[in-house]
Amino acid sequence: MSSVTLDHVHKRFGQAKGVEDVHIHIESGEFFTFLGPSGCGKTTTLRMIAGFYYPTEGHIRFGSQEVTSLPPHKRNTGMVFQNYALFPHMTVFENIAFGLQVRKVNKTDAKERVERIMKLVRLEGYGERRIDQLSGGQQQRVALARALVIEPQILLLDEPLSNLDAKLREETRFEIKRLQLELGITTIYVTHDQAEAMSMSDRIMVMQGGEVQQIGTPHEIYHRPVNRFVASFIGETNLWEGTVTGFDGDEVLVRTASGQMLSGFKKNASPRAQLSVGEKVTMSIRPESVLESTGNEGQNVVTGSVVMSEFTGACVNYVTEVGTESLRSMSINLGRPIKQRGDAIGLHIPKESIYFAG
Ligand SMILES: Nc1ncnc2c1ncn2[C@@H]1O[C@H](COP(=O)(O)OP(=O)(O)OP(=O)(O)O)[C@@H](O)[C@H]1O
Ligand SMILES: [Mg+2]
């Protein structure tokens, strides 16, 4: 297994920006995810690690080995492509064995390795099937087996679940995670699905427009987003604008655009947030942290009128109009009466749940 370092890597396509200044160190054995919307540069970055693109600037290292201009077959990475890129006219066995043939592994060893890997991805008995006779989920596992059979130091997965239905996605998510933990292999995973990224990754790199927005654990990215983009891309959140009006010990006092007074903790501020009197700040408040008021909280209670009430069985969700702003809240259904559209409601926004994104 190997660590992966991207040292100020840039990729330009003519005048067009591909990715800019990606600077990361991925630990050996880590499950690291590139997350972001379509066109943000995820595949481009992954392809540079695999060697299918060379950086315009910067360096790539596997452990201490410089690989920046090494061709793909000399890098010992296994890659699952966004569209799988399987060979449709070949059988499952031939597809998986392909990388070993290229590497001139002798036939007996190759057969043994292919069979072992087919067992690992639960494809035993499918060796003689043609690719076009397989389901999407089975094809996905062939692609994974083809990447793993060469015993790569680094596994690169580009949206490997995008062609699967919801249930199969979830199952395969567990499968990939299980394999990664079993093999302890450094894995770089590309997705635009935040739930997938959150549930599988040790760390996530959030990208937008070819630039890195934030790198952190799922917990850090969710609770400490550095800007509006990250806050809204990762899960649902309320973004409220406000102006700092003063300080009280370790707390910041903010007046929201519609005149509500809220208090939050200074320590919950991103490095980019300007916390001085008169400065504008963006507050991120997660719906699940907003509670129906008991009437005893004192501070940080806002009142409004319910504009949408949603009962999902497990949860009760409200959208409440608070002055000129709207506040989403989400709570576990504890069997209490459910408010309806037009009802008045008091909501408590706990101080520790306000994050100043800057
Ligand atoms: N070979 C190329 N030539 C020119 N521009 C390219 C090339 N490959 C990618 N780009 C551009 O670089 C940017 C990043 O593309 P990339 O494929 O890395 O995005 P992505 O994050 O993988 O998106 P998706 O989620 O849609 O797969 C895009 O603006 C794209 O148009
Ligand atoms: Mg892509």
From TrEMBL:
One of its GO terms (molecular function) is ATP binding. It comes from the Bacteria. InterPro entries: AAA+_ATPase (IPR003593), ABC_SmlMolc_Importer (IPR050093), ABC_transporter-like_ATP-bd (IPR003439), ABC_transporter-like_CS (IPR017871), Mo/tungstate-bd_C_term_dom (IPR008995), P-loop_NTPase (IPR027417), Transp-assoc_OB_typ2 (IPR013611). One of its GO terms (cellular component) is ATP-binding cassette (ABC) transporter complex. Keywords: ATP-binding, Nucleotide-binding, Transport. The keyword Transport applies. SMART domains: AAA. Residues 4-234 form the ABC transporter domain. This is Spermidine/putrescine ABC transporter ATP-binding protein.
